[in-house]
């Protein structure tokens, strides 16, 4: 690989891409509103991203839909189920509490991104809310939400990840989430969704 093509500055990076549309920069909210809550309630799987003294980790987390529970509009509770006990992600949080969650729903191309800070608790009252077959999680991760936004379906469409699966009923559309997450944007959810569906198919590559 020729190093003269390496990108090492923000200016070089920006020059390699078209500028993002302003609405893509504005589609961020700082709390869990109705569409975010509906998406999380329907999600049986998320990826927890952390970083610590040993570098970054991305950890899969899954359970029945709605296994991540909102405690209020800025706090999520995520039970830590039985695993290999390496505890890479949890150790990272002790080093650096900044985390990201990526929620997926089978059959849905869009994903939901949540960024914030986390802390780990062994509170028995909270843990009891997540009991399954009499077993409590060892710990519960509390995520204090800083940013929430929907991510478009292009990656999942290109990969064919959900090929043959239908979108479950009741999951908010991308247009609904964008409208809810864009402060003062005046976006019509149905109009945005129709434009989005036409655009995304034409701009996969």
TrEMBL record:
- Where does the record locate the signal sequence feature? none
* SUPFAM superfamilies referenced in this protein's UniProt entry, alphabetically: FMN-binding split barrel (SSF50475)
One Pfam family in the UniProt entry = PNPOx_N
Which branch of life, at top level? Answer: Bacteria
Looking at the record, the residues that make up the Pyridoxamine 5'-phosphate oxidase N-terminal domain are 37-152
Q: Which Gene3D superfamilies match?
A: Electron Transport, Fmn-binding Protein, Chain A (2.30.110.10)
Q: What is this protein called?
A: Pyridoxamine 5'-phosphate oxidase family protein
According to its UniProt entry, this protein's organism is: Dankookia rubra
Cite the source lineage: Bacteria, Pseudomonadati, Pseudomonadota, Alphaproteobacteria, Acetobacterales
């Amino acid at each position: 690989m020729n190093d003269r093509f390496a990108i090492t500055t923000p200016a070089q990076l920006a020059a390699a891409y078209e500028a993002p549309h302003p609405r893509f920069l504005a589609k961020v909210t700082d709390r869990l509103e109705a569409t975010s809550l509906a998406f999380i309630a329907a999600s049986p799987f998320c990826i927890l991203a952390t970083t610590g003294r040993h570098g970054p980790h991305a950890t899969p987390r899954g359970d029945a839909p709605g296994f991540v529970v909102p405690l209020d509009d800025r706090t999520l509770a995520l039970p830590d189920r039985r695993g290999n006990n390496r505890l890479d992600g949890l150790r990272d949080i002790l080093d650096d509490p900044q985390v990201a969650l990526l929620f997926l729903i089978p059959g849905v191309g869009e994903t939901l991104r949540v960024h914030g800070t986390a802390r780990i608790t062994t509170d028995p009252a909270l843990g009891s809310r997540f009991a399954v077959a009499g077993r409590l999680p060892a710990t519960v991760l509390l995520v204090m939400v800083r940013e929430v936004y929907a991510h478009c379906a292009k990656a999942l469409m290109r990969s064919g990840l959900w090929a043959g699966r239908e979108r479950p009923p009741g999951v908010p559309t991308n247009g609904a989430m964008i409208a809810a997450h864009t402060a003062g944007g005046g976006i019509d959810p149905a109009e945005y969704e129709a434009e989005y569906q036409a655009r995304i198919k034409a701009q996969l590559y």
